[in-house]
């Protein structure tokens, strides 16, 4: 099948307009799958709406903030992250297993998917473009410190950087270090410090006063 | 997140088919990885902008491999939509019945 677009409008022989090639392919696939009963158009709409509006990094931030505040919850996360995350109502749709990787003063964790774009959707939503791009996928493994520099993150020389390669079955959520000066903060307040990038490992949690 | 509606549709179709057990997520990830590699080999800069093109190509192939819809069926239906779009007056929904060679016309 051809993979080029025809974005121009073609008024050559009638009132209508040509659709782009890619849209025709999607319509072809969808209409056949619906006709055969393999997919339900209403379910498709629900999935799109869920990922556009309901699932996103705020989910992961709730998990991180709770882990910072609640040692028993942290223990459950360490033991079975999939189940502990599901406690908060965030469940994966692909049957993937979740694992948390904890940042410490000695070790920083960075998550990548070298093959495609496996990503913990249930807690972070859909991945940003750069996560899916070849430069990040390649460089994260070869030069993680350089990747962090690209994101404006400088860690002490002694800090080890560990790279985790996601798969279809196993996805990682980085547990960033809790910023100093946040003692006694509520989970809600703490969650505002937890950015998407801090849970991928390309960023750090925000400092108090920096939260949007 | 989704830059165009077709990206969201392609995304959701894969999720929905997986949920009804049409394929495992491991099979899906493997199919997607193959498409991405092939595109890279053909000179795609693979900067993430073309990601859903690879996604759709992987879905078409997996759907054919699982005998849900053949390549020929998809091609035929694509042509029907194309004819329907060209003959549907502006402002009206594009429907397959607007294809001049549709059996119902």
UniProtKB/TrEMBL annotation, chain A:
EC number of the protein: 4.2.1.84
Enzyme class, UniProt record, top EC level: lyase
InterPro entries in UniProt: CN_Hdrase_a/SCN_Hdrase_g_sf, CN_Hdrtase_a/SCN_Hdrlase_g, CN_Hdrtase_asu/SCN_Hdrlase_gsu, Nitrile_hydratase_asu
The reaction(s) this protein catalyses: an aliphatic primary amide = an aliphatic nitrile + H2O
Residue span, Nitrile hydratase alpha/Thiocyanate hydrolase gamma domain: 21-202
Annotated Gene3D superfamilies: Nitrile hydratase alpha /Thiocyanate hydrolase gamma (3.90.330.10)
A GO molecular-function annotation: nitrile hydratase activity
Pfam families: NHase_alpha
Keywords tagged on the record: Lyase, Metal-binding
Family affiliation: Belongs to the nitrile hydratase subunit alpha family.
Protein name as it appears in the record: nitrile hydratase
Gene of this entry: nthA
């Amino acid at each position: 099948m051809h993979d080029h677009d025809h974005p121009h409008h073609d008024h050559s022989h009638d009132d209508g307009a040509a659709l782009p090639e890619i849209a025709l392919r999607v319509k072809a696939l969808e209409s056949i799958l619906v006709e055969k009963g393999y997919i339900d158009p209403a379910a498709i709409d629900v999935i799109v709406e869920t990922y556009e509006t309901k699932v996103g990094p705020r989910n992961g931030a709730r998990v991180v903030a709770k882990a910072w505040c609640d040692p028993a919850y942290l223990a459950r996360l360490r033991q079975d992250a999939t189940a502990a995350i599901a406690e908060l109502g965030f469940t994966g749709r692909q049957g993937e297993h979740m694992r948390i990787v904890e940042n410490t003063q000695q070790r920083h964790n960075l998550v990548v998917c070298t093959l495609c774009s496996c990503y913990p959707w249930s807690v972070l939503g859909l991945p940003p473009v750069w996560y899916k791009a070849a430069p990040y996928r390649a460089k994260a493994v070869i030069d993680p410190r350089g990747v962090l520099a690209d994101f404006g993150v400088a860690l002490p020389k002694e800090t080890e950087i560990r790279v985790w390669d996601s798969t279809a079955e196993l996805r990682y959520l980085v547990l960033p270090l809790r910023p100093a000066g946040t003692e006694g903060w509520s989970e809600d307040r703490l969650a505002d410090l937890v950015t998407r990038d801090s849970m991928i490992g390309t960023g750090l949690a925000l400092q108090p006063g920096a939260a949007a | 997140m989704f830059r165009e509606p077709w990206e969201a549709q392609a995304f959701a179709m894969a999720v929905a088919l997986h949920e009804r057990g049409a394929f495992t997520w491991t099979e899906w990830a493997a199919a997607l990885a193959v498409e991405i590699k092939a595109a890279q080999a053909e000179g795609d800069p693979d900067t993430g902008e073309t990601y859903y093109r690879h996604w759709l190509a992987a879905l078409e192939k997996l759907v054919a491999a699982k005998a849900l819809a053949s390549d020929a069926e998809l091609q035929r239906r694509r042509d029907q939509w194309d004819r329907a779009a060209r003959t549907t007056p502006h402002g009206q929904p594009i429907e397959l019945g607007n294809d001049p060679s549709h059996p119902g016309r």
